[in-house]
Inverse folding.
């Protein structure tokens, strides 16, 4: 059973999401919190499959909630924002969110986006060698989906892992932006290519690839991972 946690202080929104689940995804379970701090505790206690996180909470900022969640979990997070500009979206994605929705939103659209994000978290079918030494610093275990940098295990979100795995499997070749969007975010994803740039930035930080000499941007074309 899929379990979703909604961290949102407006009860009518929680109720509407609950009704949408009841009619369109009846075998899913919804858990809710109206405060950020309790929401963080529920992530630990309930082990949900996905979090829908409002950025405007009464006790602490949604950005702070996201930051705390990312300290112990790679669970997918969709942020809800009332801002129509890119400021909150960019900040949320840079903080480790997997997607965003601007309020007011269609609840059927929300369910579709939840399903799309969950598809991105699915395990990548294993093909090829069990362990792959990419270069002197980077190693990947494709079976267990674990990545080591300088023999240190690093935590990647499912989207970060999928993007890195795609680059590794095509190492020393430029992977075009549209192929990255299709294979990592899914065909038909309405997000901007800015999502790729932000995810690459997060990857480089975790790989300690600064200045970048592993993941290289070929301007106007795509990204390449050097072996």
């Amino acid at each position: 059973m899929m379990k979703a946690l909604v961290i949102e202080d407006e009860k009518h929104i929680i109720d509407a999401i609950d009704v949408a689940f009841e009619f369109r995804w009846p075998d899913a379970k919804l858990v809710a919190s109206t405060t950020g701090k309790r929401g963080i505790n529920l992530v630990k206690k309930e082990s949900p499959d996905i979090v829908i996180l409002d950025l405007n909470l009464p006790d602490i900022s949604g950005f702070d909630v996201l930051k705390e969640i990312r300290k112990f979990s790679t669970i997918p997070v969709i942020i809800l924002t009332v801002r129509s500009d890119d400021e909150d979206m960019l900040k949320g994605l840079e903080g480790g969110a997997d997607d965003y929705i601007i309020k007011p939103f269609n609840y059927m659209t929300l369910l579709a986006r939840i399903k799309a994000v969950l598809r991105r978290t699915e395990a990548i079918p294993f093909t090829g060698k069990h362990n792959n030494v990419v270069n002197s610093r980077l190693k990947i275990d494709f079976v267990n989906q674990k990545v080591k940098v300088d023999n240190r295990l690093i935590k990647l979100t499912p989207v970060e892992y999928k993007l890195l795995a795609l680059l590794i499997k095509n190492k020393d070749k430029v992977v075009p932006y549209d192929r990255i969007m299709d294979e990592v975010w899914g065909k038909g994803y309405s997000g901007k290519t800015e999502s790729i740039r932000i995810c690459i930035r997060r990857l480089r930080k975790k790989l300690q690839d600064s200045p970048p000499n592993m993941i290289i941007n070929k301007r106007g074309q795509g990204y390449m991972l050097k072996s």
